[in-house]
Amino acid sequence: MSKAISANLVVNLVGAVAATLVVGWVIYSMRESDAPQICEGRYPSSTRFSLTGPQGKALSDSELQARLGLSEWGILDNGEIVRDESAPVSPVLEVRIAKGTGSGFNTTIPRGGISFQWSPFEMSEQAPQSACLSYHVFLPEDFQFAGTGSLPSLFVGRDFDPRGGPMKGGGSAARVGWLRDGRATVSLQYASKDGWVNPEIVATNTQWPLGRWVAVEQEVILNSIGKRDGIVRLWFDGQFAGESKGVALRNKSDLSLGGVLADVQYGSVNNVGTAPKGTKIRMTPFVIRWK
Fold it and tell me: What is the CATH number of the domain that holds 95?
């Protein structure tokens, strides 16, 4: 994978770009009138990750696992499709996270939550250069952040393998998540010759709301080859949370948006954070748009 995302690119991102990107996420507060509108209405092609079968009945855990194939982990143990009349769309996916579990990148910590990749066929056929991911998430009122955590996000490269060796895959990810103080963040995951790199790119000034459904929208626009002109944006409940400009998510022209990386768990690539107590997170079906 070092051929796809070079070590030099990673070093440059971490050392020269990451600090300046932080400014991009807070400057919107001073220029609110210039904030971009949510990405939902700006994309011509879309598809939904359905949680129901042909007759509208909620999928069982085994049916969902079969649909996801080898990309999934934890669906049978920690996932369940449930009806929730309070949700904007029902049924929803409920994810159980056991106390003491983490992301699984550190093999000494039990892996918790769920993980799967969704790559819509019609999307991959068009090799999109930008995409918009929409869903609602419910964090319970007593949710404890206790370090970093991950939620569904967009990834780059149809062969991206975030849990394999760093030479595998062929892309990167822009991970939506949280920090210890509850602020929303987006961090980029790359593979280098020295292993996985997950530098924190930015923490927004937006706190994750608890005890209610929150509309999440993430937009990723790929960079031109040889340039740092990619963009990552985030909205909550239709309100602009921030953006990172000057992002380089690829260095090969055949790398396009791959789909959704649905990691729902505590911890990250370089963070061994674990769940301080058992909890449940609920999510509506994902909608992905691209062009």
Answer: 2.60.120.200
